[in-house]
Amino acid sequence: MNSQKLIKLHVGIDDTDSAEGMCTTYLTCIILKKLEEYNIKPMDFPRLIRLNPFARYKTRGNGALSFVLELESRSDVELVEKIVLDYVEKYAMFDGVNTNPGVVFYEGEITQAMRDYAINAIYSIYTIDYAEEFAHSIGARVHKFKKGRGIIGAIAAIGIELNDETFECLAYRIPENYGTKRQLDEESIFLMNEKTYPETFDNIDIEGNYAAIEPHTPCPVLYGIRGNTPSIVEEAHNIVKSYEQIEDYCIFRTNQHTDMHIQHGVKIKDMVNTGCYCFSCEVVEKPYDIEGGHVFFKVSDNTDIMECAAFEPTKSFRDIVRNLCVGDKLTIYGGLNDNHTFNIEKFKLNEIAPQYEYSNPICVCGKRMKSAGKDKGFKCPKCSRRLRDGKKIRKSIPRDLDIGFYEVPTEARRHLAKPIVRMKLDN
Ligand code: ATP
Q1: Given this model, what pLDDT does residue 287 score?
Q2: Residues 108, 122: one domain?
Q3: In testing the pocket of ligand 1, which one of 51, 170, 276 has its CB within 8 Å of the most ligand atoms?
Q4: Does residue 239 carry a pLDDT above 70?
Q5: Which of 141, 233, 308, 345 could be joined to 417 by an S-S link, Cβ 3.0–4.6 Å?
Q6: Residue 209: burial class (beta carbons within 10 Å; 0-12, 13-18, 19+)
Q7: Is the CB of 62 inside a 6 Å radius of any atom of ligand 1?
Q8: What is the CA(164)–ligand 1 centre distance, in A?
């Protein structure tokens, strides 16, 4: 038996891609493949961790990557670090103005301070200096390329603790096909969805009736399938047919669709821009449309008033929002953007405020009466009969909404937002 003490090495990588190409998940996948040549395998699935959705320099979904190895010797540690750094050097999109890769190596067990750092990288915004200082305080080795902003996410991806988790199977294209139309059999995607939903989710955009698993960027990803377990995403991957060659695929453990970004128990008066919250409130100003198809309305929780928005990309969700009325009681989930507008991801309608319309009474002759002047009651325009103490007739207006949850469609969903179909798992 080998009594030698193994070295636990955590590797974090972030910010290697740009809108023009690459994807840090792909880079992680090919690094792991290279390590396999040396018989070095990760202890668990690599992790794809989504951080603050409002981080200014994100390319798309603010994802950072990490994996853990158990190594036998210092020379193995050196070998791994060299391979990781060489791969980042070779494959990162250094031309991208906002591509500032960061790689972090950490040996040992994850501490509470690292878990706290990680959750706050989801709740708030850090500076590169703060991240670097923190890395030194835990004895991590930090490698910054260009500005090295990626170290912010790389440290968080190493330290995050997952209480809820999902998995994503990402299939990658061969480089010759980057930038070309993805050749997928759409029917097989619908079949996969039929067989695996709701254990997999966000495969189909119900509204648009099209496959939502393929990105529309020139990156190496052919498609990504999200689900609750590694086995279901792999099963789903095996059902999808591709007419182009798949270079490789990799399953990631993730915090996607867990609502990990949502902070509970914060009052409107204490909410800050770039924070994401869940709070109970009442509608105090009815929804209205602004140019561009965005729908705004105001709510209050008795500490302050918040402007909420369902933006144009949320499509038919806006029709639900348009139906809200003053007095409706809601629990809203979402985040505060830089303009201090709350972007709604989903809401629960808890109480529907009754709505009424008022009309003048009908005269005994059958004609609708008219006002006889302020405080003078009503007068019939046909038979001149008067009704001095008459009151307007109140009629209930039916509401086109039911108590319950409403969410934005798949295409508009943030990576961290928990779909309603997953919320049912909580009960
Ligand atoms: P993709 O989804 O394609 O992987 P991305 O949206 O993840 O791209 P990145 O290229 O990773 O974008 O860029 C995000 C940058 O923001 C990284 O440098 C990351 O370190 C940084 N970052 C992440 N979280 C925070 C935060 N809380 N505060 C400040 N910067 C952050």
Answers
A1: 98
A2: yes
A3: 51
A4: yes
A5: 345
A6: exposed
A7: yes
A8: 21
